[in-house]
What we know:
Largest sheet: 7 strands, mixed
Number of helices: 6
CATH topology: Transcription Regulator spoIIAA
CATH class: Alpha Beta
Shape: globular
Structural class: alpha/beta
Order of helices and strands: EEEHEHHEHHEEH
Strand content: 25-35%
Helix content: 25-40%
CATH architecture: 2-Layer Sandwich
Number of domains: 1
Radius of gyration: 14 Å
Number of strands: 7
CATH superfamily: STAS domain
Amino acid sequence: MRLYFxxxxxxxxxxxxxxxxxQYHPGPRKLHHLxxxxxxxxxxxxxxxxxxxxxxxxxxxxFTPEENEWVVGYWxxxxxxxxxxxxxxLMSEEDFAQLPAELTEQDGEAAALTYxxxxxxxxxxSWLRGQK
Length: 132
């Protein structure tokens, strides 16, 4: 893996299997740091012509309403992404266990992103590899 970008929000790495690994740091964020972080993630996907990412949110603090609005309204838009992206999202086992089964057992869609939630990293990587 090669580091592509890092700021207070987290790290974006280039995985040799052809996907972006997006690792969030714990703690609160500033909106402009999150915007830069996710903008660089899109740039990496475009640069490498990739359509897959593994988002490691196990240590991440939940998005604030302002962050959520920006993520859904801009970052996830097909206009911004340019094409459909597949995302395996790793959550802490505690957070994952609190979700309704229908959210953890099927793929979800949010604008240009098709995603699946996981508590197990090996299962997340296996799903992501199947999205070619």
